[in-house]
Amino acid sequence: MEKNKPNLLFIKSDQHNFRYMGHRGNTEAETPNLDELASRGATFTNVYCHSPICVPSRVAFLTGLMPSETEVWTNDQILNSATPTYAHALGAGGYRPVQIGRMHLNGLDQYHGFSERYVGDHNRNFLGSPRDPGTHQEHMRGTAGPNRISLIQSGAGRSAYEIHDRIVTDRTVEYINQFCSNSNNESHSFALSVGYMLPHQPYVCQKEIYQQFRDKVKLPEIKEKKLEDYHPYLQWWKENTGSTDITDEENLRCKAAYSGLVFSLDCMIGEIIKCLKKNEIFNETIIVYTSDHGDQVGEHGFWWKQTFYEDSVKVPTIISYPKMLRSNIEMNEVINHFDITATMLDLTNSPTLPRSQGKSLKNMLISDSNSWENVAISEYCMDDSNFANVSGNLGGRDVHAKPGGVQNKMIRREEWKLIFYEGYKPQIFNLKEDPQELHDRVDDPKTKEIKATLINEVLTNWNPTEIHQRMIDLKKDQLMQQEWAKNTDPDDKLRWNLDPLNDSSRLDQADR
After folding, report:
1. CB-count exposure of residue 420 (10 Å: 0-12, 13-18, 19+)
2. Domain 21-413+463-508, CATH class in plain words
3. Which of 166, 227, 360, 445 could link 346 by a cystine bridge, Cβ 3.0 to 4.6 Å?
C-alpha cells in the first residue's frame, strides 16, 4: 500500500559553524555524509538562528516564534506547554512525532508535542535540583561554557557528549529498523527528530581524530584585535569570559578538536543515512539537517557563540528529498531559521503553526521562479547581574548577565546587517562589500538612511526597557522554582545521565 505522506528525518546538531562542511570548500572540515546529502538536495548559505544561544534558538525553531514572543530568552527559562510546536503540527497532520536525543528544554514537560522521546538531555529537568547536575569532572569543570578554561583544556581527549551522541545514533538506527520491519507500518510514515550534542565544546576529541586534523588547521583568518578596538559591548564580553589575548596554541588546539568533533558528528549521521538506504527508504524520506547556532571558531578573536558575528548567528542547513525537490542546488537567500520549520510542515502536508511568521521554501525548492524577501532577525537578551545572582545564588555566577541586563538584536536585510545594543552605539555592516565584518560603518554618513530604517525595524514591537523589566519578573519566578526544586528534589521525568568519568582532556593524556 502506498503511503500518503513522506517520512521525515530532522537532524539538529549543537553549535555547528556553517562554514565547517566539506562541500562549502572548507579544507579544515571533513563531512562526506553531509556533503552527499547536500548533493542530493539544497544547501542554504544565509540561514540565521533566532538567538545565538541554545535554548532560545531551539524554542524559536520548535515554535516558529521569536524569543520575545515565547519569552524564552535565556537557557534557564521554560517554554509554556500551551504553545504549539512543530511536533504538535506534525501530530495534527497525521504523524506520531518521535524525538531521540537533545532538546535542551527545562521543566516538567520534556515532550512538547512529541508522542515518544528517547535518550533525554544530560541536564536536570528542574533548575536548582540538588541531584547530580550532570556536569563534567572537576578538571573539566566549566569547559562546556563560555570560559577560558574551555580553551586551556582543549585538544586530544574524550567528551561525554560524544558518548551521548553515540547512544542517540544507535537508538535512531534501531528505531528506523524496527519501524520498517513492522508490517503494521506499511501504510504509515515516521516523523523522527534527532538531537545531537556535537560539536559543542568541550573542545576535545579522540586522540587519533585530533591528530588527523592538527596538521590541517590554520590560525583564524580574522585576527584578534586590541581590546580597546572592539565595540564596547564586545569588550565587556571578552573581559567577562576571560577570552582576551588568546594564544596561537589555544586556537590551534581548539580548531583541531572542533574539526574532529564535526567529523565525528558527520560519521554518526552517515550511519543513519546508511540505515535509510538499507531499508530502501532514502529517496522517500525528507531529510533536514541544521544546527541551533554556530561557533566562532577563533575568528575575530572569539570562541563559542553569543555574538551576532556570522560564524555565531548563522547555521548550516540542508534539505534533501529527491522524490520531489531539486538536487545539488545552493540557496543564497536570507532566511529565518523558522522558515525551515514552516518548510518541513509544508513538505509533510501538516498544518502551519498558528502564530508563526515562518514562510515555507517549498516552491523555491521545486522551482527557481519564486521571489523572496531577504530579511532575518535574531535576538540576544540576558539577565541583569544585579538581580540574577541574588537569593542564595542558586545557579552560581551567570557569565551572560551584566548590570542593566543585555538587550541586543540583529537584523539582516539584503546586504545590510545592523546590530542593536541597548545602551551603546549600534553596528552596521555591508556584507556584500565586507563579508568578514571588518568595517563597522555606523559613523559613515552614507549609511544614515539605511541605519535609520533598520533601527526602526528593530524597535518595532520590541522595547528594550520593557524586556529588561519582564526578565526581572521572570527571574523572580525562576528563583522561587529553584528554591522549590532545591528543597523538594523532584524526579527527572526524562534524562540521560552524564558520567563525568567519561570526560578526559589533553592533561589526562600520558604523552602530552
Report:
1. buried
2. alpha beta
3. 360
